[in-house]
Amino acid sequence: MRNLLSYTSLLLLLLLSACSPATSVHTEPAPGFALDTYRQFAFMEVESDVEDMGPDYQAHVHFLKQELARQLEQRGLNQAPSADEADLLINLGIVVDRQVQTRETNIITDPPRYMGQRRYTWQSKEVEVGRYSVGTVSVHLVDPVQNEMVWQGTAERIISDKPEKLREQIEKGIARLVGEIPS
After folding, report:
1. In terms of Cα–Cα distance, which of 133, 128, 144 is closest to 84?
2. Distance between CA atoms of 26 and 154, rounded to whole angstroms?
3. Of 2, 78, 125, 131, which one is least surrounded by beta carbons within 10 A?
4. 32: Cβ contacts below 8 Å, ≥ 6 apart
5. Angle at 155 between CA 13 and CA 146, to 5 degrees
6. What class, spelled out in words, does domain 22-95+135-179 have in CATH?
7. Are 169 and 157 in contact (CB under 8 A)?
8. Buried b (16+ CB within 10 A) or exposed e, 59-76
9. Farthest-apart Cα atoms in the chain, separation
10. Contact 57/79 with Cβ under 8 angstroms?
């Protein structure tokens, strides 16, 4: 009986971990790029083409920059006082896309309610189950002397609507993204 309970709990743990959303990270360095050849970094201006991004948009962008700066400082770089003094520029791209989760009805789980007439029809249709947000952050490292992108990376995942959970997701995603930068 004890073995059955341990196998059941292990199976439940595996199922729960498989259902948790993961951060998808893609990176592409330029040939010969190494982060340790740079000393100071600065951020390029983040521009938004949408007027109303929500009340917390600027706070999230600021936290994203702070976390990226913290991760780069752990890798040995310093933040320059201005973009003119930096030998590495960081261009951030941020996209948040609202998605609708749907499911298709079927005759077994969603049977017709009234069958009094013989001329009724039943059709399968899509019904909304929920809504969620997918966040994508793209980071481009640019060498200002050569005016060339030397590394690019993107991180994408389903993001939380709760601010404290979102900050945790940003921390983990940026750590994973910066961890992919070659030294």
Report:
1. 144
2. 5
3. 2
4. none
5. 155
6. alpha beta
7. yes
8. ebbebbbebbbebbeeee
9. 80
10. no
Contact between 135 and 177 (Cβ < 8 Å): no
Q: Which residues contact 7 (CB under 8 A, 6 or more apart)?
A: none
Sign, CA torsion 55/57/62/64? positive
Structure tokens at 86: 């930096």
156's tokens: 């994408």
Report the pLDDT value the prediction gives residue 53, as an integer from 0 to 100: 62
Q: Where are the domains of the chain?
A: 22-95+135-179
**CA dist., res. 170 & res. 64, Å (int):** 7
State the pLDDT at residue 87: 95
SS3 50: coil
Q: At what angle do helices 57-74 and 163-179 cross, to 10 degrees?
A: 40
Dihedral sign for Cα 75, 39, 68, 66, please. Answer: positive
- Please count the residues of the chain: 183
Coil, strand or helix at 125: coil
At 73, which amino acid appears? E
What is the reported pTM? Answer: 0.77
